[in-house]
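Tutorial handout. Part one gives the primary structure; part two gives the three-dimensional structure as tokens.
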Amino acid sequence: MRSDLSGTADATAWPGQPVSRWRENPQRVAWLILLASFAVFLVLAISIPLGISSYMRYATVSQPARLEPTLGTLLFYPPGGGEPVAVTEPRDDVKEGARVVAEDDSTQGTLGLVGEERAALGAAEVLGSVQLYPGSVLDVLRLRRPLFDRSPEPYQVRLRLESGQARIFTNSGDRRALDVELETPHGVITLAAGSYQVSVNDERTDVTVRSGEALLTHANSGYIAVRTGLRAWMTSEDFAHDAVAAEQNLLQNGDFSEPMLNTWQSYVIAENVAPGNVRIIEREGRRVAHFSRQGEENVPTEVGITQSVEKDVNVFDALSIQLDVKLLYQSLSGAGYLSSEFPLRVEITYTDIYGKVLTWGHGFYYRDPENENWRIINGEKIPPYIWYTYQSPNLMELLADTRPARINSVRIYASGWNYQSMVSEVYMLAE
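Part two.
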């Protein structure tokens, strides 16, 4: 008897049993596996080098900064909090998360941001620095350099000036650029290579571009580009939509177009004699402060106006005062035997970089001293009855040994026996 089972039959194949598709066409499956493997190979062959290249290009490492006090004592708050450290000597360990405070009125310091090795010099060249002035609070948010020297990416610096004044210098080295961003309570300032002055208080941020270009991005996403020789501002509500010339006028109502009570305060010095007076009048198409005294001769009196300024001027390179003067009468010749009794004089009270309160002044007269021993100090003879425009020298250079750090007040006065004089268009110009 023959069996129905045959060795040539597929023992696993039963009638009606489905056959896997990959077994129906094994060649197609092989090609799919081959193509998938090749695709994976291509992805890996491209992504791995790109990943390595991207890592080598964009990977960064923290870079410490150098803090150097130049006047007084700085306060250094280390990253992560803790008690402040008084800094009287340079230190090279200022890292991300640190805070630097110039608290006292006579304190200044410099934060050197990035040092790039220069073989020709045999030392590191500082590519960026921040000069801090009294009242400044600076946070170091980011201070990075590329991990690999072959990376073309720039050094990255992000700071926050919470308050105070600072001068920021940024340069691009031979090997790589330096990107600096400065946060303030009112926005972000992106700085190209150049020199900048920044002043921050609760109300606003002021930026002056000495050289280079700054991009001010307001907290509400508006922005303005500021170029060399211009300045702009930001507040919590708005920002300057047009940059203006860098020169600033630190005085208010110098043309006397507004009520004097809001900006200028008058005073009189006269002991038991007829006093002088000062009033705002209009003459020759301009509003002027008119000083006058007519009374007894041979008795000293004084009348003047003062304005409280209270503005820091550390960041400025130039500071001068300008005013139009007209002398009408003086009975006391010269400026008296002490060279202090001018028919008109302007005087600035300021605090110098050492914290000392000083004054500087300049007077005007037209009658020569009758006594040859009466010397004129800090004054000049001008023609009477005509307007004379006076602009002082750069006070930052003139007073270099006691350089002004803060302007406290400005006083304009007339003194002597009897006198008449006028002043108009008074400006204190800072650049």
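Part three, for discussion. The radius of gyration is 37 Å. The chain has a mean pLDDT of 87.
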